[in-house]
Amino acid sequence: MKRRKFIWYSLLAIAGCSGANTTNNQTDNSVVSEPTTLRFAVTDVKGLELLTQEYEEFRQKIAEILNKEIVFFPVETYTGAAIALQENQVELVLTGPSEYVIIRSRTNAIPVISITRPNYYSVIAVSADSGIQSLAELKGKTIAMSAIGSTSGYLGPNNILAKGGLDPKSDFETKLLGDEGLSALTKDEVDAWGGWFTDYTDFLDKENLSEQELPVLVKSQPLPNDVLVASSHLNSQFIEAMRENLLANKETLLPTLAKVDKGKYAQATLISAKDSDYDLIREAYEAIGEGNFLQGRSQ
Fold this sequence. Notes:
- Helices cover 36% and strands 17% of the residues.
- The protein has ten helices and eleven strands.
- The strands form two sheets. The protein has a six-stranded mixed sheet with strand order 2-1-3-10-4-11. A five-stranded mixed sheet has the order 7-6-8-5-9.
- The radius of gyration is 20 Å and the shape is elongated.
């Protein structure tokens, strides 16, 4: 019930905002052909001070590449970013994959470029002592995950389990333990753990454990990436030109992201993004019973 409320209340907040536009075609007077200033938000960074600290170099480089003024537009959550997109208060938003599909379903924001990360996939791990060797054996068990809405720590694992024949709504119990999930697994407080592969390998290194002691049952396909989206109020030709310019200058743009969020983009690259890249996230929301709340579909 808690996870249902998470999505439902978020979408109510977005849908309740006046002036929402959920159609793909904008009227002529709502489309901005080429603005002189682009407002830029990041959904997981709160406050102007931290936004400046983390993304000032990135902002300056985008401004140089596009030959536009780029100004920060702080938001508290992805819900705030979605409302700002609806109200034509922001032109560019950097957001995560799970947040993107919700934003897209209510704003038709246009994916521009994705920031890839190596080893960005989810895994299901168990204790070797448990004797569990297949996903089917997790029916009726307790599985630790990170947090509701996390791409690698919640949606990815649930998608793995659903594709393995388990119903996330009824076939197992989920414990949301944040960063303590693997520790709980080693203490036999849970039967399995689902999360980001890098969190798994980092934990093994920290605790001096081997993969044989905490074997991986299944890993997901590569997960969708963080994405820079543009407001649908912008002219499509301008968006395409912006995409081409950013990709053409990715070698100078990438270093500005290297220190963001403790280096999560340190080995990243930039690629062109399209909406269908995020269908895996939509599948995961459907698997946990939230598909009806996501009206957006890949075009």
